[in-house]
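I am writing to request your help with a piece of structural work I have in hand. Here, with my thanks, is the record as I have it:
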Amino acid sequence: MKTYDVICLGEALVDLISQAPGKDLADVKLFKKFAGGAPANVAVGLAHLGCQVAFNGKVGDDSFGRFLKNFLNRNGVNTELLLNDPVHRTRLAFVEIADNGERAFEFAEKHPADSALKAGDFSLEFLKRAEIVHFGSLPLTVPTNRKLFNQLINQLNHEKVLTSFDPNYRPALWKTPRIAKMVLETIASQCRILKVNLEEARLLSGTECIEELLSKLFYSNTLLLAITLGKDGCILKNRQRRVEIPSFKVKVADTTGCGDAFTAGLLMGLIKSGRSPGELDESELLKIGQQANAMAALTATRFGATETLLKYHEIDMFIKSQIRKRGIKK
């Protein structure tokens, strides 16, 4: 019997989001603090959707670390293995917002707590209590963490726990794109569920051709590949089927956390299906993709990555209203 639907593993950080869209960070005077970090965002999104979720990672023993732990607890995420680092501080991300809602990041802390990891910070017995273990990527910028993540993923695959990965590529944190590609592809190729945006898909595959990248990114270990296409929706692919799901049109305020909201919707759909990702038929993939797209779309209408996430019934109502208005395929 599994205790958790999903355990998210990796970075939890603080997003300091510009409150002056369209301005360069150098000219911004006011920021607002939000909980962030891709796997932490996914954890909160899943908890809002009614899943049993835990988070495993590390924050600084500082005010920002306490803020993150309290936020995760308030939002229904188990933080039993969210550890406090007495030496390294919590990572801060300053987020610039363009007029169209797109964002750019600058990071504080050269050696943050979320990347100061060691083998003792993770318990295989704890992680085995989940249906899915979802990995973040920011710790992978540190070489020692790459070996640790590789070992964990191999062990979990051996234990028949579904492993999930989002490369969440942030160029500012990598020495070169070549190093990023090498490291991220190594992890991506091992996990059973891979979610990438189009930029990451092109980086990992080395091509801009959709047909080619779909083939190249479906590794021997892959059961489900999800590629988000922004305003054009997403593509879901398993070994038997490929489904293209159009997006929902909304007025965009801030795209921070949209990919993480999508991932939460994706993993929730897989949990609710009760089936292996590789066995899902076209109608099941379509339903899961619509739910994930709806999560991303509604997150884009508000500021912040986690404080905007909705409940399952709200997502369901939104999809039904869009189907009625626009005749979207069920």
User: Anything to note?
Assistant: The CA atoms of residues 270 and 277 lie 7 Å apart.
